[in-house]
Amino acid sequence: MRTGAKQTERGSGGKTASSDAVCVVRGLVKTYPAARARRGAPQGPAIRASDGIDLDVLRGEIFGLLGPNGAGKSTLVRQLTGLLKPEQGSVDLLGHDLVRHPDRASRLVGYLGQESTALDELTVALAAETTGRLRGLDARRARAERDAVLDELGLAPIAGRAIKKLSGGQRRLACVAAALVGERPMLVLDEPTTGMDPIARRAVWSAIDRRRAESGTTVLLVTHNVIEAETVLDRVAVMDNGRVIACDTPSGLKALVAGDVRVDLVWRDQPPLDVPEVAALQDAARAAGRRWTLRLAPEEARAVIAAVTGGPAFAALDDFTLTTPSLEDVYLALGGRTQGTDGLVKA
Ligand SMILES: Nc1ncnc2c1ncn2[C@@H]1O[C@H](COP(=O)(O)OP(=O)(O)OP(=O)(O)O)[C@@H](O)[C@H]1O
């Protein structure tokens, strides 16, 4: 077992803003008050959902926010979109002080929140068109943008249906369409692909990528889908407990675990813990159903594969793979809930 308290903070998280930064966050603090206790029960603690966040998002980049449930991602983006006021700290978006002037955010940001209730009563087409009109497009332009985005996201066949009567994935896709109408210099999308099938997800990623390529749009993206996000993100901030615990390019983050390989062992049924070589791996393995995942130095991985394929454990083994680490491994390695926030803990 090895540990290393290494975190990358290239181009972000430092106190000095880059001249290319369109969004500069410094010292952001937001605390939710403790919930009122039921009679006789002790009051729960207040929750510091943003705990001193520094962040620079650069012009034209697709910037991802990753982190476990409750890490503070939505709280952060709601402060970046003027919907929530921090107790301390500053948010500068394209030269506008959003803590003092939260009303200016709507002119600068196309925001997709986690909830869609405001658009639910409208049809897919009307939601997109109305959003365009609210963002200042004239009627002809709003209709043209509506048609283009519905085609782009494959929504034309259900354009006339009410959003509230759609399936979860369709509803989410309709909300993404509305968020993309009426050009804004920055898009803030909170888990845009939740509930979508692979084709819809791919359409969303390419629509986002296209806006960056064609219009230089800056995109801040909250997502749990690290494997897909890896292909579109320029940089990623990993959050935990209201803090940014790492920030770099996907490849820079992957370099944190680059010396390792990932071993996946899938057991036919229960792992054969009576085999000493298998029992010795139990503490280091991340178990999910019949699958054990281990991150190991290459020579350790070779020894594990030899042990489970050559000895008595082989009869219990259904499948095994040996791969280089992905961004998901970095995310899990840094996700402080399970392994500590003070850096990488290698299995
Ligand atoms: N309105 C609220 N009142 C009190 N606590 C809240 C409120 N909204 C969020 N929290 C708490 O603040 C913390 C951060 O929540 P937040 O929604 O920002 O996390 P998240 O990273 O977006 O999570 P998820 O991935 O589940 O969407 C959590 O502990 C959450 O329970």
Tags for this entry?
347 residues; alpha/beta; Rossmann fold; Alpha-Beta Plaits; 2 domains; six-stranded mixed beta sheet; four-stranded antiparallel beta sheet; 12 helices; 16 strands; 27% strand; globular; disordered N terminus; disordered C terminus; binds adenosine-5'-triphosphate
Question: Could you explain how this protein is built, in words?
Answer:
Helices cover 31% and strands 27% of the residues. With 347 residues, it is an alpha/beta fold. It has two domains: 2-32 and 48-254, P-loop containing nucleotide triphosphate hydrolases (Rossmann fold); 259-324, Alpha-Beta Plaits, CATH 3.30.70. A six-stranded mixed sheet has the order 7-8-9-4-10-11, sandwiched between helices. It has a four-stranded antiparallel sheet with strand order 3-2-5-6, covered by helices on one side. A four-stranded antiparallel sheet has the order 13-14-12-15, covered by helices on one side. Helix 6 links the parallel strand 8 (186-190) and strand 9. It is globular and about 70 Å long. Residues 1-14 and 336-347 have low confidence and may be disordered. The protein binds adenosine-5'-triphosphate. Adenosine-5'-triphosphate binds at residues 32, 47, 49, 67, 69-75. Adenosine-5'-triphosphate (ATP) binds next to strand 3 and helix 1. It is found in: Cell membrane. One of its GO terms (cellular component) is plasma membrane. GO terms for molecular function: ATP binding; ATP hydrolysis activity. Residues 29-266 form the ABC transporter domain.
